[in-house]
Every structure is written in structure tokens, then in C-alpha cells.
Amino acid sequence: MGVNELSLRDLVTISFLLATEIALSRLVPLINTPIAKVSLGFIPIVLIAILYKPTVTIVFCGLADFIGAMLFPIGAYNPAFTITAIVSGAIIGYGFYNKKLTFIRILLTVAIGTIVCSVFINTYWISVFYGKLFYVLLPTRAFTAIGKIIIKVLIIYALQKARVFDRIIKIREKAA
Q1: Which of 28, 60, 67, 91 could serve as a FRET partner for 83 with CA atoms 20 to 30 Å apart?
Q2: Model's pTM, two decimal places?
Q3: Rounded Cα–Cα distance for residues 88 and 109 (Å)
């Protein structure tokens, strides 16, 4: 189901998950320090990636970043970070859509997404826009990424083992 094939029910579901992602990411972070920010905002993204094609996840992540930045700004809006969110959505979307969520798949998808987007792309943007040296920022950002990967993988895997995603899919199928 591509972006053009969404029903009203799908749009309502996506909108609800979009609002949930923004609230969890911007208003209720688990860890919020100058070095690292970790929130549960990735859970709605995972749900979108499981329920809809990667194109929907890509658009979802771009919108979540843009709307979140407009409603709850942390400094001036910078579209470069929205590009990173879109790349992240592509990685998660292609990693999880129509796939069996094994521990290895979860670990690889989360690790690739975090390393590519958080460690490399966002570190590059920070170095460009804030005048910091890339190679100076990289070790700290790589170290914090390890913690993010562990937290995300454990939570996603726990939700998968508890069959939360399967239940949501069954509820969606019954409603259709």
C-alpha cells in the first residue's frame, strides 16, 4: 500500500501515530542531556514501518521531524535534519516492512539506521552548521549511539516477544 492507496482509516491511524511520535520524542524524552537524547518516539515509527510500505514510513519520518520542529523547536529549524529523518525512515521502512522481526533483523536495522543517520549524517550536519570538527564530534556521538542501539533493540525485541506488533496487525486486519 503506497502513499496514494491509503484509506481514511489508514490516514487516521498514521495521524494518531504521528502525534504520538511527536509527543514521545519532543515532550517525554527518556534521556535528555547535551550529549544524547533518547525517547520512545521510535516506537510509532516502528509501527508505521511494520504496517505500511517504506514510502509511507519515509514520508511519516519527514513529517514527524518537520511538524515536531515547528511545534516544539530546539533552536532554528534546519531542513538538513529532516533529510536525516527521511533517510532513517527509509532504513527502518525497508528493514521492517513485510519482514519477520527476529532479534538479528531488529539489531541490524536499528544499528544501520543509528550509525548511518545519528553517527555519520547528523554528526556531519552538526560539524557544518555549528563549526565543530567532524572527527572531534565523532567519538562521542559513536559512543552514545551504542547506548541508543541497545535501548532501542531491547525495547523493540521485548515488544515483538510480547506479540504486541502481531496483536496490532490483527486488530487492523479485523477493522478492515
Answers
A1: 28
A2: 0.93
A3: 10
